[in-house]
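Box 3.1 A note on notation
Throughout this textbook, protein chains are presented in two layers. The first layer is the amino acid sequence; the second is a token string describing backbone geometry. Keep the layers aligned when reading.
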Amino acid sequence: MTGLPPLTEAPNPVRELSEEALRSRAAAALERARARSTALTAAVDDDDLVRQHSKLMSPLVWDLAHIGSQEELWLVRDVGGREPLRPDIDDLYDAFQHPRATRPSLPLLGPAEARAYVAEVRAKAFDVLERAPMTGRPLTEAGFAFGMITQHEQQHDETMLATHQLRKGDPVLHAPAPPPARSGPLPGEVLVPAGPFVMGTSLEPWALDNERPAHEVDVDAFYLDTVPVTNGAYVEFLEDGGYDRRELWSAAGWDYRTEHDITAPRFWRREPDGWWRVRFGVHEPVPADQPVVHVSYYEAEAYARWAGKRLPTEAEWEKAARFDPATGESRRYPWGNDDPTPEHANLGQRHLSPAPAGAYPKGASALGVHQLIGDVWEWTSTDFAGYPGFRAFPYREYSEVFFGPEYKVLRGGSFGTDAAAVRGTFRNWDYPIRRQIFAGFRCARDAAPGERA
């Protein structure tokens, strides 16, 4: 076709930074992650730190020491070439050797010892950062190793936040309420035009291996919900018997629902005056205008079928989030190429719940889709797999060992995701049964033949 702009990936401003600026950027990201880890572990006493609040999750003290162990392995030993600090605990904090359910039985570092260990590791990591070249080696190019460790810590911070949600007892975490809806009435869905776009990235310096490389993908025209499915909309599904109607569920989803007697999103309960939920120890009415959260892939799939729609594929989600038809460019974020601010998205645990639908008009994509970044992770219908040309880096266990139909891809991040650990290309994955994570969804449907933007 003629007259269309060439397809490109947005240029990345980080690549133009000096080595000094790259070090400052890495240091600031590491400090922000550590401040959050400290806040999440300081919010409870030592008994809560060592307790397992759910067999789905590790004790908080395991997550803390694991953060330090990974930082020691990659930044102190590998990048810095320093002598090991605690080689005796490498196996204890290897996530592949010990499933979460059995970690409390291990001879773990106690709270005081874990805090001292991560502090010692961090001091040595900052010393390495001052000296490590930012070019000449793939692991340190543009500060990649420091970005990888920052993202790892922030991912465990979100895991610890999920553990706090599972914790019994009085509230210990506090944050202001998210902003109200600001966009005014929105259309229910938007048409995403047919055609190719650039998916993935070859330019984002801190992108992880499963986001690479950039490649062209052709997508048929489809409609996508303007905002994630809200609690109010989900209640309609509940009240219409959605959890009891076998025809709405896949075979695997129905088996799981019936075996575990699932009748509503996790943490919800029916009261005489309506639906209530528990949110970080607070009992409150379910707010109708917020995106639904704590639903599994199977629940999302059943709702979509009830609504006469489906879940988007991963490629559809990314095209709606990144593609600008006016320029042919795939942006870093829905709103453009600048890093997120509080005006763009609900990220970083600034709030302790999703924000109402329409709360972030400045974060809308070029195609008019809102809240694609932050608020809730969004289930897609795609199995987790590598892109064409995928290469495991710097180790297979980050992504490649999880490829396969057992895992579904989630996109977009949640209110508990830090900006360093999410972008338009970032890929999360989990089992379709997972409900303790901060996951929601939005729906899609096929466009009729001949429909165009």
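The chain has two domains: 13-166, 176-453. The chain has a mean pLDDT of 96.
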